[in-house]
Amino acid sequence: MDSEYVTMYTHGFLYGYLKDIDNERLTKLALKNYENRVSDNPNDVMSEVIPLPFDKEIKKIIEQMSDAYEKHFGKRLQKNTVNGDHYWSQVHYKGESCQYHRHLAEGTELAGVYYVNIPKGSGDLVIRYKKHDYDYSDWYFPPETGKFIIFNSGLEHAVSRNRSKDPRICIAFNFKTMV
User: Fold this and answer.
1) Is the confidence at residue 179, as pLDDT, over 90?
2) pLDDT tens digits along 73-119
3) Euclidean distance between the first and final Cα of the chain, in Å?
4) Which of 48, 40, 53 lies closest to 170 in space, CA to CA?
5) What is the spatial distance between Cα 51 and Cα 38, in angstroms, rounded to a whole number?
6) What residue ranges do the domains of the chain occupy?
7) Where are the beta strands (DSSP E) in the chain?
8) Domain 2-177 belongs in CATH node 2.60.120.620
9) Rounded to whole angstroms, how far apart are CA atoms 27 and 52?
């Protein structure tokens, strides 16, 4: 597994690529559960949350992301299970995007995303950070199938509009570190 840690200002982002993940299986799982979204209100950020049953592929994703984190920081990741919202899928069809939000669930230190199915033109991860009171800037992270990104859960982030005719599918995570 290859991963890289990059520091931008005072924020760090860990990203890399996972191996031997059955993305076809995860795509089917996400699409099968699409109608089970937490909210039917399109103005609610929770309308983007699709609960998934625990699956062997999700377990492999968590293990490999934790291995990468441990390599760089000497700590393992674990799912934040305080509120039961430790992982979920997002499926964005053409024209859909993800609103700006933070992962502030109790006990959550880090947010993570794994890209399951990313067609060309399906939208970037946008992380907003505050340099000072009058300057907010955005970083753009292009997604790729098989790529993961881990970042501070308090950073405001969104996903730009999917311009592809095919759905963009990812799995998001809330993590805490093991002491």
Assistant:
1) no
2) 899 998 766 555 689 999 999 999 988 888 887 788 999 999 999 99
3) 23
4) 48
5) 7
6) 2-177
7) 2-8, 11-17, 77-79, 87-92, 98-101, 110-117, 125-132, 135-141, 147-152, 156-159, 168-177
8) yes
9) 11
Contact by Cβ (8 Å): 112, 23: no
CB atoms within 10 A of CB 125: 22
Which of 154, 155, 147, 126 lies closest to 138, judged by CA? 126
Angle (CA) 97 94 171, round 5°: 55
What is the number of other CB atoms lying within 10 angstroms of the CB of residue 89? 25
Q: Cα–Cα distance between 96 and 88 in angstroms, integer?
A: 17
Q: Where are the alpha helices (DSSP H) in the chain?
A: 23-32, 56-73
pLDDT digits (tens, 9 = 90+) for 139-178: 899 999 999 999 999 899 999 999 999 999 999 999 988 8
Name the one residue in this structure whose structure tokens are 């000072």: 132
Backbone angles phi, psi at 31, to 5 degrees: -65, -35
State the Cα–Cα distance between residues 85 and 166, nearest whole angstrom: 27
Between CA 6 and CA 3 the distance in angstroms is 10
CA distance 27 to 9: 35
